Amino acid sequence: MDEICVMQATVLKTLANPRRLEIIHRLAEGPCEVGRLAEELGVSQPNVSQHLAVMRSAGIVEAERDGREVHYRLADPEIIRACDIMHAVLMRRLARLGMLSGTTLQPAAAAEPLRLPEPV
């Protein structure tokens, strides 16, 4: 098996979490510290810290210490582009299935998180 495929699978597994995608979309706006991320996303600071640690170990985010605070940022700005592409693919799929009647398609960074229907 190709090593790059293994690395890609690891990154995609890491991205397969709605909270982590929310964090990525926020970090696309610019670096942020854990406390502010937690406040903006309405979740606990330990929860955000855990998600950031997982993303950091996968190479998705980087941290930079500034005194007592640690600022997180996307390791590569293309990460948000990859997320936006997948978001657009899903929006088109839902539109084809007639589930988005009258909805304007927007890039994920500017839109609400995609909510898929519950399985029947």
Q: Would you kindly provide a written description of the structure presented here, covering whatever features stand out?
A:
This protein is mostly helical. It has two domains: 3-74, Arc Repressor Mutant, subunit A, CATH 1.10.10; 78-110, no CATH class. Helix content is 52%, strand content 12%. The chain is built from five helices and three strands, in the order H-H-E-H-H-E-E-H. Strands 1-3-2 form a three-stranded antiparallel sheet. Helix 3 crosses helix 4 (45-57). The longest helix has 19 residues, at 78-96. It is globular, with a radius of gyration of 16 Å. It starts with a helix and ends in a 24-residue tail after the last helix. The model is unreliable at 107-114 (pLDDT under 50).
Structure summarized in a few sentences:
It contains five helices and three strands. It is mainly alpha-helical and 120 residues long. It folds into two domains: 72 residues, Arc Repressor Mutant, subunit A (Orthogonal Bundle); 33 residues, no CATH class.
Mean pLDDT: 86
CATH class of the largest domain: Mainly Alpha
Gross geometry:
globular
How much of the sequence lies in strands comes to 5-15%
Stretches with pLDDT under 50, minimum 5 residues: 107-114
Number of strands: 3
- What's the CATH H-level superfamily name of the largest domain? Winged helix-like DNA-binding domain superfamily/Winged helix DNA-binding domain
The N- to C-terminal Cα distance equals 36 Å
- Counting H and I runs of at least 4 residues, what is the number of helices? 5
Structural class: mainly alpha
CATH architecture of the largest domain: Orthogonal Bundle
Lateral arrangement of strands in the main beta sheet: 1-3-2
| Number of spatially distinct domains | 2
Indicate the percent of residues in helices. 40-55%
Radius of gyration over all CA atoms, rounded: 16 Å
